[in-house]
Every structure is written in structure tokens, then in C-alpha cells.
Input
Amino acid sequence: MPTASRREVGQRIATIRRARRMTQADLARAAYVSLATIKGIERGARSPSDDTLDSITTALGIDPSRIVVGSTRTDSRVHAALPSISTAICAYDIPADTRPRPLDELGEDVGRLVQWRLAAQYARIAEHAPHRLTEALGALHHTTGADKLRAAHLVATAARSADAVAYKFGARDLSARLVELMRWAAGQTDDRIAQATTAYVRTETFFAARAHVPGLRALEQAIEASPSPLSHASVAARGALHMRAAVIAGRAGDEDAATLHLDEAQTLGDTVPEAAYDGTQFGPDSVRAHEVSVAVSLGHDHLQRALTVADEWTPPDTLPAERQSGFWIELARAQVWAGRPDDAFESLKVARFIAPQHTREHPWARESAATIRRLKRADAESLTSFAEWIGAV
Output
């Protein structure tokens, strides 16, 4: 990395650190690196390695591409790791010789995969998921009783995080295999919430195949099988399924079903605090964000609803980065349809700022950027630069 680039990287890290009201010592502790390393990076005297950059940006709660502008490192790291994920699950039902680590330790590591998924840090997931999957599967095959149930849940959770990477980076066959692994593992937990979560994730396979009608049917069956909404976790499990059903009903062109499921999700969402339940964010804000998603799914005739929601409400910073960026990407799509390309470009820039990896790999973001560029060919250089970054040219 050239000296000027090192200096710029250090300045960005220092600026964001100060905005987080962290001292250099605070950042060093949170990132598990030495204070001398932080000082050297911030003054531009040394370049952070990939691992150090990941540790620093995780401690700051941001994506690495906020620091290393224009880097294609994420893409290459993700694609390089996908074969290892495939290898890790190819013999999922065959016991390996390795003995499992203590489940508490493994659970902490799998929990970090969940945090990275919600924060849209896909490169980190891709690098760590193969080993976590191997370990979780080993634990499942070498434990009994309550530990076996817990290990099965860890397998399902690790598979879900790996699937987020596979699906968003276009490895749809691998994604489908990971979803089936989730279903296999969840079926061994006797946990109806885990099974509801798996049904929620399985919807990706229907989206990918554009099989919206059978996807809606599968979700409605999952809602019927979900536990009664007696606790926050069970309310969230059922409510998330209704949110997902509303979106896929919209893509199926079934306005009545979309409205029914969104209303049910809103009723349930109003009874629980916004939080991640079994790895799925749910609550009033998530349901509000899905109003835009449902309106966009229903098509051009419903775009005013999406625009109205955005005029009245924006996602709070407390929502996971992936969900926030999804809102802005879908809003941009509605704004393009409404003939508001400038607003759409601003929405895409917000999405990129919040979750660059998610935005760059989202097909609707790429499509909207390409459309905006066609409409405003003579506009600012920043639009062309954005279109090139997202792969729209």
C-alpha cells in the first residue's frame, strides 16, 4: 500500500474511532491488537494486514470497504472461500474422527457468524464458516442428549450464516444445499422455533426459482406449524414468517394475501421489542421496513405506498446493517419507477455507506444504478464511479 494510501486509511480509522468516542487504547483492546499497531496505522506509518483490518473494522462496527475505498478484496475472498464451504458440508451425515470443542466455546464462535451476517460482513463469514461448520457437525455426531440438540442448533445456525454468503454472491446451488442442511439439523432439535427459522430462510430457494406461489404455500404451512405466540421468541418466529409471506405474496401478485400477512406481522411486531430472535431481526421497525419491500414486490401500481413510508419513517441505526441497506435499496427501486433518479441515487449511496458488501451484491441495486446512469448520462462523475463500483457498466 503506497504511503499516501496508508495515511488515508489511518485518517479514516482515526475519524471513525473518534466518532465512536473511543480512545486508541479502547480500539486496541476491542480489536485484540497492540496499542502500538493502532498508533502506527493511524499515523500512516504501517499498513494493516487483512486480518488486522477486519479486527479493527469489526471493533468499530463498520465494513472494511469503508476504510479501504475501492477494494475488490471482499469479492475475491468470498469466492475463494466458497469451495471450502462446499467441502465442509459434503459429508454432513458421516461422522468425522475429530473430537468436538466444548460447546460453550463453539457457540461463541458460531454466534460471531450471526453478528457478522446481521452486519453484512460476508468476507469474514466466508473465511470462518467452513471451520465452524466442520466443528458443529463434529459436535453433532459425537454428543448425546441435550448436548446433541444444542449441537444440531449450532449446525443450523452456522449453515444459515454460510448461506447468506452463498446466496448473495450467486452460488445458488450451494445455497440450496446449505438450506437443506439447515432443515436436516433443525429437524433433529425438536425445536419448533428453529424449524420456523429454517422455513423463513428456505424462502430464498423459492425467490431464486421465481416459484412465488409454492413459496407462499410453504410459508403458510410453516406458520401453521409454528409454536403458539406465547413468548417473545415464539411471537418473533411467527411474525417473521408472516413478513416473509407478505413479500413473496407480493411477488406472486396476490395483493390480498400480502396485505393479510403484513397486517398479521404488524400485530405481532407491536407486542415485542425490536431484536434479533434466533438470528432473525423482528419487531415494529422490521415490519415497517417490510412495508416498503411488500409495496415494491407488488409492482409499479403500489410504489406510492413505498414512497409514503419513506417520507414518514427511516430505519433507525439500531437495526442491523443488512436490513437498513435493504430498505434503501428497495426504496431506490421505487424512486426509479416514480421518475426520481436523483433521490434513487441518494438512497443507493446511503445503502452503500451502511452495508457496502450487501449493496454491491444486490441485483436490484445494480439494476437501479444502471437505470439511473442511462437516464443521467451527462451527470456527475460520482454516478459513473458508483455504477462502475457496483458492476452496472
The two ends are 27 Å apart (CA to CA). The chain has four domains: 1-71, 74-190, 210-313, 324-393.
